[in-house]
Each structure stands twice: as C-alpha cells, then as structure tokens.
Amino acid sequence: MSFIRKPNIAYKGQRTNALGLSMRDYEGGMSTLCAGCGHDSITSALVQAFFELDIEPHRVAKLSGIGCSSKTPAYFLSTAHGINTVHGRMPAVATGANAAARDLYYIGVSGDGDSLSIGLGQFAHAMRRNLHMLYLIENNGVYGLTKGQFSASADLGTKAKKGEVNEQPPIDPVKAALAFGGSFVARAFSGDKDQLLPLLKAGLKHKGFAMIDVLSPCVTFNDHEDSTKSYAHTRQFYHPAVHTDFIPPAEAITINYAEGDVVTVELHDGSKLVLCKVQPSYDPHDRAAALSYLEKSEAKGEIVTGLLYIDENRSTMHAVNNSAVKPLREIPYEDLNPGAAKLVELQSRYR
Amino acid sequence: MKPTDTSNPDYFHKVVDCQWACPAHTNVPEYIRLIAQGRNADAYMLNRDSNVFPGILGRVCDRPCEPACRRGRIEDKPVAICRLKRVAADLSEDIRDRLPRAPAKANGKKIALIGAGCASLTVANDLLPLGYEVVIYEKLGETGGLMRSNIPRFRLPPAVLDTEINAIIDMGAELRLNSPVESMKSLLDEGYDAIFVGSGAPHGKNLELPGRYDTDRIHIGIAWLESVAFEHVDSIGETVLIIGGGNTAMDCCRSSLRLGGKDVKVMARKPRNLLKASDWELEDAEEEQVEILLNHSPEEFVIDKGKLVGMKFARVEWHDDGSGRLKAKTLDHIVLPCDDVILAIGQENAFPWIERDIGLEFDQWDVPVVDEVTYQSARPGIFFGGDSAFGPKNIIWAVEHGHQAAISMHKYCHSQSMTDRLPYGVNLASTKMSIHEWSYSNDFDPAERRLMPHVSLQERFKKLDIEVELGFTFDQTVTEVERCLNCDIQTVFSTKLCIECDACIDICPVDCLTITHNGEEVDLRGRLRAPAENLEQDLYVSEGLPQTGRVMVKDENLCVHCGLCAERCPTAAWDMQKSDLVIPYASDEPVCPTKRKAG
Questions:
Q1: How far apart are CA A280 and CA A241, in angstroms?
Q2: Of B388, B314, B402, whose CA–CA distance to B353 is shortest?
Q3: What is the pLDDT of residue A1?
Q4: Is the model's pLDDT at A155 over the cut of 60?
Q5: Is residue A348 part of a domain?
Q6: What whole-number distance in Å separates Cα of residue B143 and Cα of residue B134?
Q7: Is A337 inside any structural domain?
Q8: Mean of the per-residue pLDDT values for chain B?
Q9: pLDDT of the residue at A265
Q10: Which of A1, A4, A44 sits opposite B442 (nearest CB)?
Q11: What is the CATH classification number for the domain harbouring A97?
Q12: Would you call B564 and A14 a contact, using CB atoms and an 8 Å cutoff?
C-alpha cells in the first residue's frame, strides 16, 4: 500500500474515451494491499478494460467474497454498484442480482481460498448454470490475509515462506471450470497485462460465465525461491498457448497474423476475438483436447495461459429459465405484483 | 536505447527544470522547501550562493525559471518562484554574520572592476573573500548600475538595493563613485593584476525619423529613466507615447503615469506574442490603464511651430516572407497626438573609452570579442561580463557572467589555465525516512498559483517610490510553497532489484512509467503508456530487467515526484533521492598563492 492517495492530476494530453471519461474516472479507493501485490495490477488492468470498452461505471455491479482478492472491488470503479458478500457465497448473490437486473455488467472478484475451498460448491454451480458474468480468481496459492498458509491451489512440493512443503495436490481452477461446464475458460498472469487486458475485455463481452484464473503473486508470503507462484517462477515456466486480441464491434481487424494459426470468434455484441495459436495444435473449441493439453503441460511443469476454451453458444441462465427479457425494475409494479385477488385466483387452480 | 547515464551531473540537473533554466542555476526546490519550513534566512543564503541578490531578483528577475517550471506543463501556471524568493528575502532574519568576509591577510593581488552594477558586484562578491584588493570604478554617484538607474523605484525600492550591494562593498571593496574610466590605457598603467569590464550597455538606441531634432520633447528611454531615478526630471506631458515593446517601454510608461502622464500609450511594431516585454510586465502596465497598441510602425514626428504635437505611424500587418522572416505590409497611416515621446527600442554597448590599439579585438558591430567560457577579451587580463560582454541580457545572466569571470580572474592571477575549470557535480541522497515517509512533502497539492497583491490604483500614483507589489501574505506563501513539485527529489531506479510486478506503473498518477522491450528512441517514445511527445524532456531507460530482459522507461516530462512509485515498490527498486547540484565558484578552485609566490 501507499500512504497517500494517488493524486488526481488532469494532465495535458490525458486520454479520454467515447464517454469523455478519463482512466482516472474508473479508479476506486486507495489500495491497502501490500506494495507489489499482483491484485493491484489486475485492478489496474480492469480499470483500463472498462475505460477502453466505454462502459459507464453505473452499469456495472462488482461482487466479491472474503480475502485479499475480495478487497479489490473497492479499488476500481468507485461509482459502480458493489457488494462484499459472505466468504465463498458471492456466486449465489451474483445469481440473485443477475436474475433481477440482467442488463448490468457483472464482475465477481474471488481468490483461490474463496473459490476453491469454502466456495467450491458455489463456484461450480455458477458455471453449471452459465451465469452471465466475468469471474476472476486472483490466484496466489496462499491465504495471505491469515499470514500465508497453503491454499487449495498450492502446487505439490511447493514450499511456504518458512520452509514447510505442501503435500496435497492442487485444485486447478481451469481444469475445474472445464469439468463444470464453464463456457469461457482462461488463465492469465498479473505480470503480463498485454495478455490479461484483452482477456478481461473478452470476458466482459462474453455471453455466459467467463472464468479467468489470474496468477497473482503474493509478494509478502509467496514470492520466494521454491515457491511455484512467485513472479520469477511464473515467468520462467510461462507457456502462452493462445494469444487473444479483442476487436470492438465497429473496428476492422488490422493486425497481420500468419495464415492458418488464427481463429476468429465473433461475440454476441459483434465484437471479435482473434485467437492466435502460439501452439499450432491447440484448439480452443475442443474441451477434451484442452484438458489433455493441460495435463501434458502440467507434467512438464509448464504454466499454460491464454483463452483455453470458449463456447459462445451455450445457453445462459436466463435463456434456460425463459425469464423476462427486461430487468425487473423496468417492469411495471402491477405486472410484478398482480395483487391479492390474482393470488387467490392462482391458488384456487391448485385446490 | 542505451541505459541512461545518471552519473553525468547534467542528467538529474536537467530534470530540475527551473534550476536548469536559471543562468546561475539557483537551487529553487531546495530554497522553496526551506521557506516551507520557515527557514527564510537559510533560503536567503542558499539563493545568495548562486544569484547574490535575492531581494533584488525576488522583485525584478526576468524569471527564466518560471516558463521552464514543470508545474506549467501539468496545468497552466508555473510555481511563483520569483515571488517566493522575495518572501525569503523580505522575511529573512539578520544574516549579516553569515555573509562571506575578507580574510585578515590579503593575497597581494589587486583587481579593477569597471561599473558598480550586478556583474562587477558579483565579481567583487566572489573575489573579496579570497583576499583580493578590489577597486570599483563607477561613473555615476551611486552604486547599482542599471538596477538603480533604469528600474523604477515603484518596482525596486532603493533600500533593497542598498542592503544587498552594501553587503558586498562592506567586505572591503574600494568604491570610487563619480569616477568614469576615460581611458583603458591609463587604467592598465595603474598596474592591476586583472581588470573586469562590467559597464553595461548604457547607450539607448535612437530613432532617426523626420522631426527627430526639431523638439526637445523626445527622450531616450534608458537615459530618461536614469534622470527620473536621480530626480533630474520630475514631470512629463499629459499625453505620452512610448515607442517600443520591451520591458524598458513598460518602465517608461508606468513612470510617466507617476510624473503627470494622463494618457499614456505604448506603441509596438510587432504583434503581442512577439513583444519582448515579459507577460507580467505587460499585465502590470495594462492594470494601470496603459494602452498597448500593436502593429504600429513609427514614421515621423509631427512638429507644429517648433512644438511636438504628435507622431505618425503606419499600421501594418505581418506576413511570413517564406524564409521564416516576418515582413510588414502597410495598411494605412494614423497620427496620434502627444506632448512627449520616449524611445525604448533597445540599447547597445559603447566603448569610446577603450583604445583600439591595446590588444583588444572588436567585432563587426564594434563590440569587444569575449570568450564564452572564460569571459576574457583578446588581451589577457581584461575580462568582460554582464551586458558589456554579449549585449543586453538581464540581471541573472550578468550575475552568472560575474561568477564565471571571477573564476577566470582568480586562475589568471595565479597563472593557472582558465579553461581547466572544475566540472559541475551532483550528490544523491535517499529521502526515505520510513516505509511511507519521505523527508519532503510528496503529496500533490492541486492549488492554483497565488496572485501577487498590489497597492490600490488610487494609492500607488501618489508618489514615485510606492512599491506596487506588496509581497505574498503568510497564507499565500504557505499555499504556493506546496505547489512546488520537488523536481530535485529524483526517481532513481535500481534495475537488479526489480521483479516487474507493475506496481509503480499502476500507481503513477501521470502514466510516465512503462516496462517494455527496448527500441530506438523515436519508436520507444510512441510505445509508452502515455506517448512521450515532449522531445526536450529525456527518457530515463534502465538496463535489461532481470526476469524478462525488458526495460523500465520513465518519461521525465510530467513526473510530479509524488514518490508513489517508490512507496508501491516491494523491493525498493525505485527510491526518491535528493540531487544536489555542486556548482563550482572561484573559492572552490584550488590555487595556492603562497606557494606560487615562493616559486
């Protein structure tokens, strides 16, 4: 953290977006995380993503559970809606909010503890029902807020700061998401914004549940030698499988890619994802192949990153439930609540 | 790009824009911090080291520092550096016991200084403490040169001049007033070890137009100001035209208003943006209801029955003639009535008293040839400085000339090479006090520039010597000091400590940091988080970073020195270090007079 707030300086030449807002208008309160925390980098990438997508801050709902990661919604989009829920229960609250106000952008920020331990069930079911939201796991392999115990994502054999060795296998959120039916599954690294930023934009524009597992080193408890979640280790074994470029609806694809290695995916709002396969054999539409690729890479110690799986055609929660097209607040009160007489009439049909 | 060489003292010096722009390299941020701490005497003494006349310059300096100030690039207005200097001078406690003194034992060298203006006085200030016997020749009956004769008292009170000039004279200079040097040759015969010419540019330019000599109501600006200063003139007609658009014109028009002028106009040939007068002097004149007419080219003095009644002007339009030079096109003519005309169209050097056969060289404009490093003329032992060296500049340049000439004279008198001068140095020291605490006020204060309070328009014209500017109040000072961005507290980067976590980049309020792969400067400037479009400002480029081999690049242009990069850095790869420019003066030059004498 720092001691003074980041001063708001409207310097000459500052960029503004289509709404006339500057990047500063997308920031939030002063971070109280440790200096150098990966989470702050992710926050900064989110600020940039919302800014560049010209999203009005009040059209966003931020949700989180408990943990260092779950503090971060306070540090961006201070004029958005937001709730800090019970530990591991953010997906349920997000489901409720989304059911009532389906026209907002939903972003959930969780951590490896919040999603893979106490909240694993909630995490799984949110994916199963393909809730329309961007769900980030800020994954550092430790419980930072309680001083560095191993979390469920800690790798076998990794050492804690004081030297203990982790002897339980990790839950890989990417493999879990593939297994539970996630329709947009990606992994990124807080130290590589070039990759993270287009993934965040794609995730916000994906129709359905977009899960991004963001490796986010804990500088205080998990950035030492013999840690497999440190900046240095992540960079050493970093293995981008797919590079994603996000192209907004109105823009043409201007980047030149080598023939054959490129897959273009059109999202529901007309924006396009250009997936450039760094590994030629990789197919982000093939779930079985993705799982197999992950297993093989994991055995070699590689950390596979990029947009690893996408299915734009899976039905979302609203489609499955055939729910109202409008958010509930736009439906007249009389239609939402037809009154006691109608209730009696309805009940009489079941007598 | 190659990694930035921060061991070159110029690199960090250049980041301190104000200090870099100041001819005398006054340590502005440090003295502003001292004022902020209420240490006005310390601020005064720090100023005095480099600019010798803080009280005078705090009122009338040309302020090259202010247009350079980084604050002016962040928002519109720079820090009121000059006004704060005056605060230090006005509120300083008694510093007389901190002034340099002449040693008990003289060094046996005797030098002559011609003119008692700022350049000569600076030489005296630097050489008296080294044991020199200093004789100052002044043609007028008072010291100060142009500072006293040309700057009106309502801008620069005589008491301020006296205090700062006497501080130098009282070190033991022999002051010969009313002693114009009539012949350089005979001065040379008096056996001085070195001679310094600081006689200024005392010759006001004339305007040879029809009618020029048919009346006695046409005055040369600087001569007229001198007559006003020494009370030989105490009135002027009601309608006055000032010809010229420089600072002398501003002093002439405002002086006219105090001597009986009712309708005073400044007539300039050029458009507003090309006037030589400082913006603030134009504004101060306009506040006093002086009308500044632009694009009026003087053509003729209109004389009726031996009396000046007006002046004819061509109204012109300016066009670029294709080669970058402006050419005037006459639109029509206009005659403006007047009682007096004051010519303020420039001044030049005049050396009728220097014989042309004594070894000095004069160039095509009859100006002596002077070396730009040593300030020595073609004749060894004769030095020039101030306006008499390279034509009219300003006080702060004259002071810097004086410092440099003093070094040369000191080395010359001890038979040392004058080109072998001490280099500038820089000291760096961390300002870190604890995890989130720095030894300077690092939080950005969004306050706007404070405005100088003035004596009311009803009061100020009652007497010629009512100082118009009142000086900053306590509250104004407290606010203005916090506007300084502390550009001398440098962001210093240690490549090998960086773990590339991006924390500094995310927190930077002006997006001046980027980690990216290296490239040529032009390419790199376009790839930064905020494109680095100000080519006058350097990029600070690191060596290859340990984990990825990319480089950390800082665009020095807009950095507000808030220190957040260093606060957010988990490994202290960024540190905020105070850079202290080490400026060599004559007293720093190692000469050993006693040894030489023995030899």
A1: 9
A2: B388
A3: 67
A4: yes
A5: no
A6: 15
A7: no
A8: 94
A9: 86
A10: A4
A11: 3.40.50.970
A12: no
Domain of residue A253: give its range. 23-329
The per-residue pLDDT for B594 is: 45
User: What is the sign of the dihedral through the CA atoms of A321, A322, A328 and A332?
Assistant: negative
Distances from the Cα of B148 to the Cαs of A95, A262, B338, B395, in angstroms?
Answer: 81, 78, 28, 12
Q: Which two tokens stand for residue B86?
A: 């005056």
Asked if A132 contacts A106 with a C-beta cutoff of 8 angstroms, the reply is yes
> How does DSSP assign B278-299, residue by residue?
-HHHHHHHHHTT-EEE-SEEEE
Helix, strand, or coil here: B576?
A: strand
Write out the E strands in A154-231. Answer: 184-189, 209-215
- State percent of chain A over pLDDT 70: 98
The two three-digit tokens of residue B359, written as one number: 């070894």
Average pLDDT over residues A22-51: 95
**How many angstroms separate the CA atoms of B394 and B401, rounded?**
11
- Testing the interface with A: which of B501, B533, B555, B576 to mutate, by most A Cβ within 10 A? B501
The mean per-residue pLDDT over the stretch B391-417 comes to: 95
Q: Mind listing the domains of chain B with CATH numbers?
A: 13-97+445-483 (1.10.1060.10), 99-202+349-413 (3.50.50.60), 205-347 (3.50.50.60), 489-582 (3.30.70.20)
Query: What is the pLDDT at residue A282?
Result: 80
| Any domain includes A18 | no
Cβ–Cβ under 8 Å, residues A250 and A176: no
Count of pairs with CB atoms under 8 A, one residue in A, one in B: 97
Nearest to B553 by CA among B489, B588, B505, B510: B505
In the prediction, which pLDDT does B592 show? 63
The C-alpha of B281 sits at a distance from chain A's nearest C-alpha, in angstroms, of 27
> Is the pLDDT confidence value at B343 over 60?
yes
- The pLDDT, as a whole number, for residue A263 is 79
Q: Which of B394, B387, B391, B346 is nearest to B244 (CA)?
A: B346
Q: State yes or no: pLDDT of B30 exceeds 70.
A: yes
Judge whether A7 lies within some domain: no
> So what's the pLDDT on residue A14?
86
Of B509, B531, B569, Cβ closest to residue A6: B509
Question: Comparing C-alpha atoms, which of A208, A176, A38 is closest to residue A106?
Answer: A208
Give chain A positions within 8 Å (CB) of B73: 11-12
User: What is the ipTM, given to two decimal places?
Assistant: 0.90
Residues of chain A with C-beta less than 8 angstroms from the C-beta of B548 = 235
SS3 A211: strand
Tell me the per-residue pLDDT of B420-475, one tens digit each, with 9 for 90 and over.
Answer: 999 999 999 999 998 889 999 999 999 999 999 999 999 999 989 999 999 999 99
How many domains does one find in chain A?
1
Three-class SS state of B455: coil
Contact check, Cβ <8 Å, B568/A35: yes
Residues of A with CB under 8 A from a CB of B: 1-4, 6-15, 23, 34-38, 40-41, 43-44, 190-191, 193, 217, 219, 223, 231-232, 235
How confident is the model at residue B168, as a pLDDT?
A: 97
The string of pLDDT tens digits covering residues A60-113 is 999 999 999 999 999 999 999 999 999 999 999 999 999 999 999 999 999 999
B556, B484 Cβ separation under 8 angstroms: no
